[in-house]
Design a protein that fits this description.
46% helix, globular, 8-stranded mixed β-sheet
Length: 284
């Protein structure tokens, strides 16, 4: 029996779409061997490992307008648009507790993707405890350039995993996960365009030429990965779930109605895909 995984791309608050899909999976007993998340896919995907249905929706609705969670005030005061202490410690440890015990007992593997600022390459980190060090990897995966400080782990600098590998289905296959459900946060037909902030990024990250090179080609890499997903889908090695319409939530979203609508779109598409998902995961 081949190993099976779920690969979740990012998209900041559009990632609440992914949470809707994963909640449907949990409610219907959809089990895989692994989940690999990028950025929001990592932040929200960990709840699939801990088995916490609706947790992502609950705390995003509760804190959507809280400046400690996500705000330009936080960016000006701390250097991070998503508040470090609030998002990665106060919230999961106290305000809406993450089930650390269930996560650690789970037989599913959990990987997050971050980008090494020195090399511009993707790093695929397996997390087993979700302790403070592991949380730093989740934070690194979700730290968008220009609006986040570099996350320093063991002397190396990391930022958003989506910079180097937005849809890491090839990485999952190289790890031995032969069949993967790929959850995207953009509708069919979407193609990424060159970075509009690249002139500013050239100034901000001028000391890191390899990182800048990755940023410059990010759109090309993303669009190539979409084509890889299409090919793998045709070969029966990937099953793609993507929004049936443009999600209402933007990358930075404080409107709870738009967040809820995007989550419900994920639920709708997840429920519609259940038959295909069960057939895809069934061992031949």
């Amino acid at each position: 029996m081949g190993k099976k995984g779920i690969v979740c791309e990012g998209g900041a608050m559009r990632g609440i779409y992914t949470a809707g899909v994963l909640d449907v999976f949990m409610e219907n007993g959809i089990e895989t061997d692994m989940l690999m998340g990028v950025s929001a896919g990592a932040c929200f995907g960990c709840n699939y490992i801990s088995g916490q249905i609706e947790r992502t929706l609950r705390y995003n609705i509760r804190f959507a307008k809280d400046p400690r969670y996500c705000s330009f005030r936080s960016l000006l005061m701390t250097g991070d648009i998503y508040g470090y202490e609030f998002c990665y410690h106060e919230l999961p440890e106290k305000l809406d507790p993450f089930d650390f015990e269930s996560f650690r007992k789970s037989e599913k593997e959990f990987y997050v993707v971050a980008t090494d600022v020195e090399t511009g390459k993707a790093v695929y980190k397996k997390l087993e405890k979700m302790d403070r060090e592991d949380m730093e990897w989740v934070r690194a995966s979700a730290s968008m350039p220009m609006v986040s400080r570099d996350v320093i782990i063991e002397g190396r600098r990391y930022l958003d995993g989506g910079i180097a590998d937005s849809i890491p289905v090839e990485a999952a296959m190289n790890m031995g996960y032969e069949k993967n459900i790929v959850i995207l946060t953009r509708p069919e037909g979407y193609q990424k365009k060159p970075e509009t902030l690249y002139p500013l990024e050239k100034i901000r990250y001028r000391k890191h030429p390899e990182f800048l090179n990755t940023l410059a080609h990010r759109h090309e890499d993303y669009n190539r990965e979409l084509e890889v997903c299409r090919q793998l889908s045709e070969e029966g090695k990937a099953l793609i779930i993507r929004p049936g319409e443009a999600p209402q939530a933007g990358r930075i979203e404080h409107d709870t109605a738009k967040l809820t609508a995007t989550y419900m779109l994920g639920r709708k598409d997840g429920e519609a895909a259940l038959g295909r998902v069960k057939a895809f995961l069934r061992d031949e």
